[in-house]
Amino acid sequence: MSQKTENETENKAKAGAVIVPVTPFEQNCTILWCEATKKAVVIDPGGDAPVIRDAIAKAGVTVEKIWLTHGHIDHVGGAAELREALNVPIEGPHIADKFLLDNVVSSGARFGITGVRDFTPDRWLDEGERVELGELTFDILHCPGHSPGSVVFFNKEMHFALVGDVLFNGSVGRTDLPGGSHATLIRSIKEKLLPLGDEVGFICGHGAGSSFGQERMTNPFLTGEF
Asked: How many domains does the chain have?
């Protein structure tokens, strides 16, 4: 299953993406690649690793990294397995989510998800750092609230972001899980994401993507209706 935002279409020569819904939570695992080099990254492989590997093969790209936006089970459940299968490093999330990655197995058990592993990423990410994918560079923004260690990947040139569960089309991430804070989440969105520009399109962790401008104008959590 693929999903293209307007920004992805405009930048077709620079990047491509395929979204693979995984786990019973229908989490958007994203395979993103640099068109110039066909080098790719898998973002938030929450589970169903064989399905993700099939999608990689169909895309005809070479995965070099796994990126994690945060540590919740539906985003990281397949990360350790995929790292081993593809022999690539895991980058992210912020170290504040270490307690979640240390408890992937127990978290999975609560939701009836088996075959997962606790793990440590090869690189924790922090505010102001950058990650690279072929000829593309993404800035890291630490956006706590949904989880303490949530990060957003932002490419300025393409006006494009991968936001995990920080922001959704018409909603925001839940904040009733350990380490969550609604006030902190709204502050992260308003102070770090919206200033990047209304034209920035994003892929989120569940459901259809949107743009920061659309959400600024219509998202009830940002307009004050909720």
From this structure: 1
